[in-house]
Design goal:
Structural class: alpha/beta
CATH superfamily of one domain: P-loop containing nucleotide triphosphate hydrolases
Distance between the termini: 27 Å
Helix content: 40-55%
CATH topology of one domain: Rossmann fold
Largest sheet: 5 strands, parallel
Shape: globular
Radius of gyration: 19 Å
Length: 208
């Protein structure tokens, strides 16, 4: 029987480099699948439907909520974000490790539904670096940047809800660190019940 994949939720401050980190993780290793979220925000330049997000109107998104098609959803800086359920379940059953890149409210909801979810919070080395990264994007107004920094103050209060706190300073080192975390999680006794029982049965045969 194929081993079930791990559900990995990655959150962090806007500008912490979560997206870049996850893309590099998927590029280097084959066993990850990135769950594509649905959102009502407008696409940024270079983003494509079904790759970065499923872009929905507010009416379409609220219909998905009503039909129970989302694992979680939340409103962030005036837009809806949510995780489609069917894709996640399919990939986990196939043995792939599924990455959800979502914010704190959503992470808590996922953990309620899937208690063995691994929660990672990604942060830059400090607040000055966070502001620098947000400004360097060049895609948002000073007002939006200020809103994101204000939001970060609130998000910082929930970091202890996560299993791991990851500093994204050096990208290569951060990617390898996250991959090691996931590999270690696969070795938890709670995830290895079938293998443990097989060894017990084999050992019992020796004692007969």
């Amino acid at each position: 029987m194929e081993k079930r994949g791990i559900l990995l939720v990655v959150s962090g401050f806007s500008g912490a480099g979560k997206g870049t980190l996850m893309k590099e993780l998927l590029r280097r290793y084959e066993n990850y699948a990135l769950s594509v979220s649905a959102t009502t925000r407008k696409p940024r330049e270079g983003e494509e439907e079904g790759r970065e997000y499923f872009f929905k109107t507010r009416e379409e998104f609220e219909r998905m909520i009503a039909d129970g098609e989302l694992i979680e959803h939340a409103c962030y800086v005036g837009n809806y974000y949510g995780t489609p359920k069917a894709y996640v379940e399919q990939k986990l059953c196939e043995g792939q490790d599924v990455i959800l890149e979502i914010e704190i409210q959503g992470a808590r909801k996922v953990k309620e539904q899937f208690p063995d979810t691994v929660l990672l919070f990604v942060s830059p080395p400090g607040a000055d670096e966070l502001k620098r990264r947000l400004t360097k994007r060049g895609t948002e107004s000073p007002e939006v940047i200020a809103n994101r920094l204000n939001r970060a103050v609130q998000e910082a209060e929930g970091i202890e809800d996560y299993d791991y706190f990851v500093i994204n300073d050096d990208l290569d080192a951060c990617v390898e660190y996250v991959h090691r975390i996931v590999q270690c999680e696969h070795s938890r006794t709670s995830r290895c019940g079938e293998q443990i029982e097989n060894i017990r049965r084999e050992l019992t045969a020796f004692s007969k």
